Amino acid sequence: MRTQVGIVGAGPAGLMLSHLLHLQGIESVVVESRSRAYVEQRVRAGVLEQGSVDLLCRTGLGERLRREGMRHEGIELRFDGESHRVPMTELTGRAITVYGQQEVVKDLIAARLAAGGTILFDTEAVRLSDLDSAPVVHLRRDGRDEELHCDIVAGCDGFHGISRGAVPEGVLRTYERTYPFAWLGVLAAAPPAVDELIYANHERGFALHSLRSPQISRLYLQVAPDEDIADWPDERIWAELRARLETVPGWSLNEGPILEKGITPMRSFVVEPMQWQRLFLAGDAVHIVPPTGAKGMNLALADVALLGEALAAWYGEGRTDLLESYSETALRRVWRAQHFSWWMTSMLHRLAADDPYEARLQSATLRYVTTSRAYATSLAENYVGLPWQDLAGRIADEPGLPAGGVR
């Protein structure tokens, strides 16, 4: 097989890059080891920054997002038995939209297939070769070995994919931090008891009340990193959520059947550079953030918006400057998101159960955030997403494409 850009991974990054390239008349093939049903049902992040919403809408992917996405103009911080709202839209003019990652993936897959795009599901990318001149993605499909020849390879295959490992030892620098706790997350068939997300700092540990729809709640608890999910029956989960969230008089959780539950370790991870020869890396393949700041999917979309623009300039005008600066430009946003995610995580989680000094520092920080307009604005502008540098400006100007975000 032959294409212009070979894309490894059919998550939000890989699919969005394929969509952006299509709008510029550039061919691509997406390779995905899992089935279509698996990637469309995989529950992950659910908060879209304003820039991500605008990108989806102005590239023709906003119809269902406008109809089903839930726009939030603030978040709630709970600590010391009090509740404080951070009015994000009032402070920044922007908002977030709750719309599950799997819904973004469904919309992208539908758009690519409707446009005649090629997505090879159930196809394993085994290795990459000839990245210096004429890249080849070596595939295993239906028991057969195949080759995908291309000009460029985009590695969007996540932390455990093959793309990052194709870079020779000694080229990449790794920066990481492992946190002494994990998140126990549940999806519950219970109408959310909130209109906006609640982040709770509690002596028993952090808790988060989020939502996926008017009928489905998404909830999280801070737990030990070696916790066994078998030790958390539904009754224990609800009891712990009540203890950490029902700290404000007159407010209570809505409970219901738990549909899914799992434990996710917390870590920060960055690899530099994000490119080597004709291989360009994006998303979780090169950076992971704690989910506290809701940045994972948004960073992935920002990466490929940059990469798509750079590839359009290369194919259309023969320009190499944007491809050469891709890593440096993307990493500026990555490290800002790393800091914000670390800060939110450190402020809200109990780092050590027996450290009263740390607990008092967290209370002091939270009180300052909720009483200082400047500090609240800093939190708000990072949470809704710092303005994109018109990363997809060329696409936004295409005739016939809708402009603007969810209103």
TrEMBL record:
Keywords carried by this UniProt record: FAD, Flavoprotein, Monooxygenase, Oxidoreductase
Record InterPro entries: FAD-bd, FAD/NAD-bd_sf, RIFMO-like
One Gene Ontology term of the molecular function aspect: oxidoreductase activity, acting on paired donors, with incorporation or reduction of molecular oxygen, NAD(P)H as one donor, and incorporation of one atom of oxygen
Stretches assigned to the FAD-binding domain: 2-340
Domain of life: Bacteria
Keyword Membrane: no
Keyword Zinc: no
Protein name stated in the entry: 4-hydroxybenzoate 3-monooxygenase
